[in-house]
Design brief:
This protein has helices at 2-16, 23-30, 34-40, 44-67, 72-89, 91-100, 106-111, 115-134, 143-163, 170-185. It is built from ten helices and no strands. It has 188 residues and is mainly alpha-helical. The chain has two domains: 1-41, Homeodomain-like (Arc Repressor Mutant, subunit A), CATH 1.10.10; 44-185, Orthogonal Bundle (Tetracycline Repressor, domain 2), CATH 1.10.357.
């Protein structure tokens, strides 16, 4: 039941945005009563936050699974590819994500309680850079800063592509970012 509510909420929020979505619309889309939604969630905002967190945790699982056991260069490539593929496969969610929290503006991040998740997620990804530095593959750059730069570039490229600001297919986004990142952090 909760999964059905989350899926319906994702669809309605993606279509209408947070402020234009009414709980009754989510209930109709899920085929449940408004009261049923309020048995699981205290407010629309709590449901909205759960939609965002659920999808981000799904992304995190995919990324962690994809990079596991890979050497640093390959792990970095796979991380970028996995994120681009996830957002391409989950386009409705991506548009919701970019509209509401894509810039990771602190007030929105705090409102949705994403800081702790984002800190853990970027910490896991920073280990790729740390491993590459330790193995002499990457330049000695701040690991978390490198991951934040890559993460920001991914969001910006995907957003610009979705909005038509640039004409890049997902494969072009992957190739462009991988090329820039590798040239920037690989030791000569």
């Amino acid at each position: 039941m909760k999964e059905r509510i989350l899926k319906a909420a994702e669809e309605v929020f993606s279509e209408k945005g947070y402020y234009n979505t009414k709980v009754y619309q989510i209930a109709e889309a899920a085929g449940v009563s408004v009261g049923t939604i309020y048995r699981f969630y205290e407010s629309k905002e709590e449901l909205y936050a759960d939609v965002i967190k659920t999808k981000l945790k799904e992304l995190e699982k995919k990324v962690v699974r994809a990079i596991r056991g890979k050497e640093p260069e390959e792990a970095l490539r796979v991380y970028i590819e996995t994120v681009v593929d996830f957002f391409e496969d989950e386009r409705n969610f991506f548009e919701l994500f970019m509209r509401e929290v894509g810039s990771l503006v602190i007030p929105n991040e705090e409102r949705l309680n994403l800081s702790e998740w984002y800190d853990r997620y970027t910490s896991k990804l920073s280990k790729i850079i740390e491993d590459g530095i330790r193995k002499g593959i990457f330049k000695n750059l701040h690991p978390r800063a490198v991951i934040l730069i890559i993460s920001g570039a991914l969001k910006n490229l995907l957003y610009a592509s979705v909005k038509g600001f640039i004409n890049l297919e997902p494969e072009d986004i992957k190739d462009t970012l991988i090329e820039i990142v590798e040239r920037g952090i690989l030791k000569a």
